[in-house]
Write a structure and sequence with these properties.
homodimer; about 500 residues; alpha+beta; BirA Bifunctional Protein, domain 2; Rossmann fold; Translation Initiation Factor IF3; 3 domains; eleven-stranded mixed beta sheet; five-stranded mixed beta sheet; 27 strands; about 35% helix; globular
Chain lengths: ~500, ~500
């Protein structure tokens, strides 16, 4: 087969797009900006979903489902929120079509105009807090810990598969609490959940931090985020967790009776990750031959490819292969035995490389003679012969090793491409020459932040959580700075 | 607590609505016709989803995701389909809002009108077959077996929680095959999957059949269905599986090269069940005290309620309760130990009755003395004392027994309320007096079917699959009939 994906050095952006399509992950749809998530891509997303869903439930959250549509007037209730979200969105104005008597086909029925337009949810704070008003009366109803898996729509003009699409899939957690402290603790807890998921499952190291006011979620008091580094050195925001203060409680009049019998506004949080994580996963690890998937999120962890000429050979190989398959499955390893006679082994090797299957076992007649198999790992492309009786143990360990190795590789890359600068000249030089993450002093003003963005396209990704307070001077304005912040060009 | 749900005899319809709300399953939202599925209701839906999803995967299907929006022109491509689906739907005409300078708030930006309106999917055949055109070239690409879990919108004028809502959640399977026979086999297989799910998990006995041309899915050659009986004797269509022939392949020009190298149109199927199943589950089993849930779909299968006055008593009870919890969980039984001190045992008993928790274990100081617990089953309300060392085995068996008993009860009810009539007079009398399912001869014409519907509100639910061909005369027209069909009033 011709894989025909360009190399990363050649054209990183084209490499990504072609990889997404050729590996069968997603494709553009006839609807502008909306993607089709294909079965193999969706299988990875399902693994992400299942893992995250369990983490949410283990931290006490329940799932629920709220309407797709939001009445237009709801968006205006929280002043900052409307500024940030109400603009580029899909608007439903009519509820009926009718036959077009003149031209055939169907046209919108002008008599079926909605009294109030409905917005396809770009995020659900408004419609959810409108419900919370009825669900919360007393401190006994708190905390309210709810998550929703849903599709949302934001009318993006420039779209890229997974990274930025008009419709995307996500989860959005929306919680309500009796105290500010508890809401902040929840916001931080969910950031930890996201960071753990990114590092332990996606094998993507992340930097945790808070956004500057400029980059904050519209309606939040504080936005926490995790930032990952892609192989081109650009940053990708992989998850956000917002402390909403009492903003939405005030906008939707959500009060509760305290133990002492006083009426107080509820404290809120919201947090989300989306199919954008697919983009992060793909871009963080994959190479010029295709996907590299961490075993914990690979739909197929092990593929067994028989190498044979005669049917008797296939029969003998199948016996061994099926035994491995059964034993590995008993250890919760997902295995595919690809015994299709429509494709040659070489084609299959390339196909599973493209699809990022972590471990490939090849078995031929000579292996049967010698009691061995050939095992190839996708991450390093190393191959070796292993005795059949050791194969199951070997593969089980190898999967763990690959998971760790992929993470280590990404972590080294991130470390090597993270630099600290003192002057704006140096900043521009490093950004131009090396890219990556750059720590530098900033005076804390939106003005400076925006000028740097205008001049260099780099943005403040976050004020890192682990940074120690350190007096200095802003590289741009020379004004006092209380600590270095993280700059990068970003997706 | 005051349960305050009306009895079924009093007002079946109100009983249902109040039960759905009071048990915390769902509620109406501020968006006309759209519901909010609350955490407890969603937990049941998740169990349904997980079970069905496994059944779909076990029969070779993969999940994928297609766009929420469908270009208006797509709907017109299959002539019957547009008639059935393109009318009552949500139409997106604009993609931007702007600040209203005069009145405040936001208004639709007239400059952001879409060239072609987008329809929020009422079902996805059109957008999916448009993709299949690119996915299918040769017989090697077939069968294509795909399912999607999604939200869909149909602009219903009269809505009822779960049973008929403007937005609902569902799964829609869309498959493509090389031969007619294979597509029909798939259609029938998925009907079997639905019937198995309804009977073995929901504990709802169903009648399998095919729809008359009048009731067929718009665009299908044949629609198979399962029909369930609710406690008021009305029928509820619980799932449909459609043989699409080559209709959508022709509308979207989806051809494949056969092994012999000829170009042929692909054969299709589609099949779906929705959150409507929640309505069926609730209405089939519940009683005047609340929900009755089959253990296999109950989010909480066993609740343990401590009965105590002093803290030392609670401590001693907790020790026993936690031990049961651990042992039952090891057997995959979901257990809640409700040790809240904010509510009395009597309140808790009523609450878990309302929520349909299949088994309740109460433990008090006397039980500790005697080494017993009190076990109450929700379906029959029977209570008995059981020795502590037998409790885990007893409960495990009891859950199975309850699952079976709930099914048996529904099956007896269905049998008792299924009648056969020979004349139209008798038909009307039975329908008026007893309701339920009625088998009668029908001449096979749409005309007769519609007249009976007009005059009695009963519809032909299906032509049962297991009916033996039996010559007779139509109860309405006196014309020849080839067999009895199933009539009922329906949801």
């Amino acid at each position: 087969m011709s894989k025909a994906i360009p190399s990363r050095n050649e054209d990183y952006s084209l490499w990504y797009n072609e990889l997404v399509k050729k590996a069968g992950l997603a494709e553009n749809s006839p609807v502008r900006g909306c993607m089709v998530i294909k079965p193999y891509g969706f299988a990875i997303w399902e693994k992400m979903q299942q893992t995250l869903d369990k983490m949410f439930k283990d931290t006490g959250h329940s799932n629920a489902y709220f309407p797709l549509f939001i009445p237009k007037s709801f968006l205006s209730k929280e002043a900052d929120h409307v500024e940030g979200f109400a603009k580029e969105c899909a608007v439903v104005t009519h509820y009926r079509l009718k036959n077009d008597e003149e031209k055939g086909g169907v046209v919108v029925d002008p008599d079926a105009k909605l009294e109030e337009e409905l917005i396809v949810r770009p995020t659900s704070e408004t419609v959810i807090w409108d419900s919370y008003k009825n669900w919360i009366q007393s401190y006994r109803d708190l905390p309210l810990l709810i998550n929703q898996w849903a599709n949302v729509v934001r009318w993006e003009m420039r779209t890229r598969l997974f990274l930025r699409t008009a419709e995307f899939l996500w989860q959005e957690g929306h919680t309500a609490h009796a105290t500010k402290e508890e809401a902040i603790a929840e916001t931080e807890q969910m950031l930890e959940v996201y960071a753990t998921f990114a590092e332990e499952f996606m094998a993507v190291p992340v930097t945790k931090g808070v956004k500057t006011p400029n980059e904050r979620f519209a309606g939040a008091v504080e936005t926490y985020c995790i930032e990952a580094m892609m192989q081109d050195g650009k940053a990708l925001q992989a998850g956000t967790s917002h402390f909403l203060g009492q903003n939405f409680a005030k906008a939707f009049d959500v009060k509760f009776a305290t133990k002492e019998g006083k009426d107080e506004f509820v404290w809120g949080t919201s947090w989300g990750v989306s199919t954008r994580l697919m983009g992060a996963l793909i871009m963080a690890h994959s190479d010029d031959d295709g996907l590299v998937l961490p075993p914990k999120l690979a739909p197929i962890q092990v593929v067994i490819v028989p190498i044979y000429r005669k049917d008797e050979e296939l029969a003998a190989i199948s016996e061994v292969a099926e035994k491995f398959k059964k034993e590995l499955q008993a250890r919760n390893v997902s295995v595919k035995f690809d015994n299709r006679d429509t494709h040659k082994p070489g084609w299959k090797f390339a196909e599973y490389e493209l699809k990022g299957v972590p471990v490939r076992i090849a078995i031929g007649p000579k292996d049967l003679e010698k009691g061995t198999v050939e095992i190839a790992r996708r991450d390093t492309k190393e191959k070796q012969f292993v005795a059949q009786e050791e194969t199951v143990d070997f593969v089980t360990n190898l999967l763990e090793e690959i998971q760790q190795n992929i993470y280590n590789k990404a972590a080294s890359f991130k470390e090597e491409n993270t630099r600290t600068v003192d002057t704006y000249e140096e900043f521009k030089e490093v950004l131009e020459k090396d890219g990556g993450f750059i720590y530098a002093h900033w005076d804390g003003t939106s003005e400076t932040e925006e000028k740097i963005k205008e001049e260099t396209k780099a943005t403040i990704r976050c004020i890192p959580l682990n940074s120690t307070s350190e007096e200095g001077t802003c590289m741009y304005s020379g004004k006092p700075s209380k600590g270095k912040v993280l700059f990068a060009k970003a997706y």
